[in-house]
Amino acid sequence: MNLHPITAHMPEERFWGIITATLAAAAAAGDDPDAQDKAQNASLAALLSELDWQDVLAFENRFNALHRASYTSHLWCAAYLMCGGCSDDGFDYFRYWLISRGEAVYKAAVSNPESLAAIADPENDDYEREDIAYIARDIFAEETGGAEIYGYLSPDERGYPDITFDWEEDDPATMQHLCPRLYAMFWE
Question: Which pTM was predicted?
Answer without folding.
Answer: 0.94
